[in-house]
Amino acid sequence: MLPSVDPDLIRVLGDPLRLRIVTLLARETLCTTHLVEETGAKQTNLSNHMKLLREAGVVETEPCGRFTYYKLRPEALAGLSEQFAALAESARTAAENKRACP
């Protein structure tokens, strides 16, 4: 059976700002203020992106006083990596398979 990649997760990570956020969070846990400073995004825009990343299971929140910290969920990216690795392996073995034209 052909491995599949989660299209919702690809869509979420396909946005340049969200991918930048994920890259930043791969280095350290950051609050909204840090992410606004690092990305240059407006706070409301950033909050909308963070909501999508949370809903996709890519990040989780950690309240700290009046701030919200975000941290990456490595298992979400590891799962995606495994899906792509399986797809690549399938492509390697499929290189020998060629469907005949009618």
Give structural attributes.
alpha+beta; 14% strand; 3-stranded antiparallel sheet; 102 residues; elongated
State the strand order across the main sheet. Answer: 1-3-2
Overall number of strands: 3
Overall 3D shape: elongated
**How many whole angstroms does the radius of gyration measure?**
18 Å
Q: DSSP strand (E) fraction?
A: 5-15%
- The average pLDDT score comes to 89
Q: What about the largest sheet?
A: 3 strands, antiparallel
What is the string of SSEs from the N terminus onward?
HHEHHEEH
- Content-based structural category: alpha+beta
Poorly predicted runs are none
What proportion of the residues is helical, as a percent range? 55-70%
Number of helices, counting only DSSP H or I runs of 4 residues or more: 5
What gap, in angstroms, lies between the N and C termini? 24 Å
